[in-house]
Amino acid sequence: MTKLDLDWPHNFNEIPKEVFVRKDVYDTELQRIFHGEEWHPVCHESEIPERGDFKTFRLAGIPLLIARGDDGVVRAFFNACSHRGNQLETAPMGNKQEFECPYHRWLFSTRGDLVGCPNQREFVPGFNRSDYPLAQPRMESVYGVVFVTMSARTEPLLECLGSIVETLRELVGGDGRLKLLGYQKVRYNTNWKSYTDNDGYHAPLLHQAFNLLNWQGGKGRQFTSTKRGHIGFESELSVARGDTMLEDPSIIEFKGQDPSVGSRIVSLFPTFVATKHLDVINLRFATPIDHERVEVHYAYFAHADDDEEMVRHRLRQSSNLLGPSGLISMEDASIFHRIHIGNHTPGAAIFQKGVRDKEKIEDEFLQNDESGNLPRWEYYREIMGFERRAA
Ligand code: FES
Ligand SMILES: [Fe+2]
């Protein structure tokens, strides 16, 4: 693999801004990260609950089709016909009994088998339909979250996740039995790493409305899980009493059982974030479009056992609290854009809060530290093959 010429600073808390804006860096990220030995969440099984339901998603350019077969099994396919490679399905989601490629009308079952193709007698002698199912990437799932990887060498999913799988389980309602409420889909004009570099430090400072939830004052912890760059948060949220900022405070009501962990965040390298703030269950499937754009699908869920009132509450809270127009998070979009503009300047982004020794990576972080992002940066540097400058 080509080695990139890039000067990585000596100090562990400095990230060269070049990595956010260089096209050749992005091309190497495609090889080593997105099409390399990492697992990427692409769907939750509850997004496609019925037989024949499907969803399409592009993982860093690779088109995927995730479908529930007529046997009830969820499978991930490459979204390309096994004949000449035409993109098979164009809808973002839907329900079909078969997938038909319009180019030469090859027909596939919801299990991915080729079940029909016109003019077969004139094909290469010995042609057999069973040799041409839809191709599949490696797939594994946990608590309903479907992951794919493009490499045969990637370690099994649970080994890559480590202990953060417990936080993920709690986040998806304890068992992953969810019900899709809807999506917000947005493209940010920023490098994918700026999108995932959101930190614990900024939350109460950038987001004025986060103060409604007492993020700063609450107890919480931030942790890393395995060496693969995953970050978790488990935090107390408490709705400020007697607050007068909102005319109708029911939007920030917490009906959940345990306010000491009113917020859980699971951020998996490279681009997946899942959050549960109050009663909002949100999985964010994200993919880079190129080196300066990232697309994020915010998917919102209820739990399968919720009564109608709880579903309504979650629906209302989801769209009002989170996402690109959410009360407590809308400022992120502006920062994603502005930091990408700012990254077209020389030098390094310098992390401060929580850094006690810039000659090493810490392994303990407070909820509001930005140093929690540095183990991820170290993992990134290693897999990208960038060498740290000597002292
Ligand atoms: S490319 Fe799909 S049928 Fe020919
Ligand atoms: Fe934020």
From TrEMBL:
Pfam families: Rieske, Ring_hydroxyl_A. The keyword NAD applies. One of its GO terms (molecular function) is dioxygenase activity. CDD domains: Rieske_RO_Alpha_N (cd03469). Keywords: 2Fe-2S, Dioxygenase, Iron, Iron-sulfur, Metal-binding, NAD, Oxidoreductase. It comes from the Bacteria. Belongs to the bacterial ring-hydroxylating dioxygenase alpha subunit family. This is (2Fe-2S)-binding protein. It comes from Sphingopyxis lindanitolerans.
